Amino acid sequence: MITPAFELTQDPDFLTVKIRVPYARASEFDIYFEGEDFKFYAKPYFLRLTLPGRIVEDGREKASYNTDEGTFTIQLPKEVPGQYFEGLDMLTSLLAPKKSRSAKPLVEEMDASASTELCEENEEEFDWEMEQIPFEESPSPLQHPYGFGNLRSGVFQRLQDELSDVIDLKDPDQTPAEERRRRRLAAEAAKFEPDHYLADFFEDETIKHLLKYKPWWIDAHRKMTALQGESHQEHDSPAFVVFSEAEREQMKKFTNKSYLLDKRSRRHAYLGLIDILLAYCYEIRVNEGDKNVESSWNIRKLSATLCWLESFSSIHDVLVSFGRRVLCYPLYRHFELVTRAFSDTVMILQLGKAAVLKCLLDIHKIFMESDPAYILNDLFITDYCIWIQKVKSKKLAALCESLQKTTLIKSHVGLELEELEAAAVLVQEEEKALKAAGTVSKQQLLCSESETSDSEESSSTSSSETEGSDSDEQESSTSEDGEINSLQGTLKEERTAPLIDCNGLRQGTDTWAMEVGDGKSKVSLQSTTPPGKLVEELEMQIQSAMRLSEQPEGLATAGCISQEQEENPVPEPDRFSEDAAGKGNFLEVSPKPNPLLFLCSTNEDED
User: Fold this and answer.
1) Angle 587-592-595 (CA atoms, 0-180°, nearest 5)?
2) CA–CA gap between residue 441 and residue 444 (Å, rounded)
3) Mean pLDDT score, 430-452
4) How far is CA 581 from the centre of its chain?
5) What per-residue string of b and e applies to 13-28 under the rule 16 or more CB within 10 Å gives b?
6) Start-to-end CA span in the chain (Å)
7) Which ranges carry the CS domain (predicted)?
8) CA–CA distance from 216 to each of 169, 194, 241, 289, 522 (Å)?
């Protein structure tokens, strides 16, 4: 027979059961309900539920079938109108038959309806037989139990190869609880790194960002609080916690089990549940709801229940252990993440067992996708998923209230956090003071150096100005003396230099020369032997056409009579030109037939 997918809802007067039976023969189906029992059959589907409240057959019941969706919708009247049925989302618990609730731990109930009479007749013998545990898990005097409710032992003897990848405890079957705790504390103390903690303490930008993240339970808790404030009534979490289709299928796959736990075992189970939820809340926050390859490692590493098979005796011990492990192992080691995981766990417990079950189903899925961690599902998580569905809401509320009253501060974790922080702050203040003093001294040094350099520059400037003025005077006097000497030498050369014409013939006549240099006209007329007629003709030719030609200063050469013709003659012969540097230019005769170039000294007057 196939167990169909189903969903239960309620209103004040009716309980509604929606059953999905695709490909079933709708014309042939049977429905039976009375008191807390409900049965449905439509070949090949069979569904039997044990309801949390009583229903009655009084003529108001209704049933309908949707052929497109293949679903039956059945409305069943409540025996007590207005009664609230608790735990309608706990599908595994609803599937369990009523008489199985008194069975012994880890008993798998299969085909219980066929053996009901036999169980009733031989109840004591049946219970005695169920107390026996399979051979591979039978505890010996040298073995110590662990797992959910400390109901398992001998498991790791068969899984030595995978042991190191799952838990930190070596040889758990031979290690008592006190020795486990001692080894765990020693490992945490050796793993704690003050530098890592202080780095996260001072450079907390990422931590602040993670603290702002809001997981799904924050919004659900806000809605629940607002609704409770309006109606002043308590509401169960299914109104605010919704299971996905995959989560419903996951619950259907769990085997029906019942657990007989003594008071000590129940206490260990509740405290272990808090420890696992704390680790899960940290994982969800630091990864902002996303799953990655480190998710399985984070959860099992931060939970001493999973990693060291720890059995706690108080809620405060749970919080201290979680706080220590957060500050020793994961990437982000900040105490604010510990307190935020604490408040998140309180919210989940306040939402009720539906929220707790949703978290456990997510953990179960994470471990199932991690190769070595599936062992923890067999030891803890699967049993927690089944057990939490049968826990009374009042018990969970009392656990939440006790958790809220418990406080955790930095001094409780025993890692000297406050001393480390105080020392780090003191060192930081000293570094700031030294840095400030160094800055001030550096500024003073720079100021003194600048003042010294300014005084040196001013003195050097004044001395350079004095030296410059002296050198200028010496240069001007030297240049003037040089000009005089050069002119005198030129006159001597001009007086002795022969006059050569363009044909290379020497002439014995002296020469005229006109020189314009440095804005000053220096004209020297040397007496010549030719008659006055020749002088007049030369003056006329000079006035008719002459132009300037650059020559080196102080040049005194013989005149050359040449015959040159240029393509662009200067139209204005009387115009003088000077270059940008203000150097002197010589006068040249315009290129005409038989031009004459006269060079003369400036020391003689014109005849």
Assistant:
1) 55
2) 5
3) 73
4) 69
5) ebbebebebeebeeee
6) 150
7) 1-89
8) 34, 33, 9, 9, 106
Measure Cα distances from 323 to 186, 311, 317 in Å: 15, 16, 10
Query: Which of 113-117, 357-361, 414-418 has the highest average model confidence (pLDDT)?
Result: 357-361
Residue 324's nearest CA partner among 413, 448, 221, 421 is 413
User: What's the pLDDT at 255?
Assistant: 82
Pairing of strands 512-517, 520-525: antiparallel
For the stretch 323-355, pLDDT in tens is: 999 999 999 999 999 999 999 999 999 999 999
Q: Is the pLDDT at 318 greater than 80, yes or no?
A: yes
Contact (Cβ atoms closer than 8 angstroms) between residue 104 and residue 92 = no
Structure tokens at 205: 């930008």
Q: Which two tokens stand for residue 330?
A: 């994961």
Is residue 286 within 8 Å of 210, Cβ to Cβ?
A: yes
The pLDDT confidence band at residue 519, using thresholds 50, 70 and 90, is: very low
Measured CA to CA, the distance from residue 532 to residue 540 in angstroms comes to: 13
Residue listed under structure tokens 């051979």: 135
Helix or strand run (H / E) with residue 9: strand 5-10
CA–CA gap between residue 118 and residue 126 (Å, rounded):
9
Which residues is 146 bridged to in the sheet? 152
Secondary structure of residue 5 in the 3-state scheme: strand
User: For the chain, how are helix, strand and coil distributed in percent, rounded to 5?
Assistant: 50, 15, 35
In whole angstroms, what is the distance from residue 594 CA to residue 501 CA? 10
Span 457-475, average pLDDT: 51
Helix (H) or strand (E) holding 257: strand 257-258
Six token digits for residue 354: 């539906």
Amino acid symbol at 587: L
Q: What is the mean pLDDT of residues 487-506?
A: 42
Q: Is 585 exposed, middle or buried (0-12, 13-18, 19+ CB in 10 A)?
A: middle
What sign has the CA pseudo-torsion 164, 168, 172, 175?
positive
Round to whole Å and give the CA distance between 48 and 174. 44
CB 522 within 8 A of CB 515: yes
The rounded mean pLDDT for the chain is 74
Nearest-angstrom CA–CA distance, 88 and 558? 132
* The predicted structure's pLDDT at residue 87: 82
DSSP 115: G
Distances in whole angstroms, Cα of residue 511 to Cα of each of 352, 488, 492, 533, 553: 130, 16, 13, 16, 18
In terms of pLDDT, which residue wins out, 459 or 230?
A: 230
User: Any idea which residue has 């003709």 for tokens?
Assistant: 537
- Closest listed residue to residue 426, CA positions, set 434, 415, 414: 434
If residue 589 lies in a helix (H) or strand (E), which one and from where to where? strand 585-589
- Domains of the chain (ranges plus CATH)? 5-95 (2.60.40.790), 162-229+237-417 (no CATH)
At residue 580, the pLDDT reads: 40
- CB–CB of 75/228 below 8 Å? no
DSSP 178: H
Fill in the amino acid letter for 3. Answer: T
* H-only helix segments in 253-334: 263-286, 295-302, 304-307, 315-326
Q: Which two tokens stand for residue 588?
A: 């040249």
Distance between CA atoms of 554 and 515, rounded to whole angstroms? 9
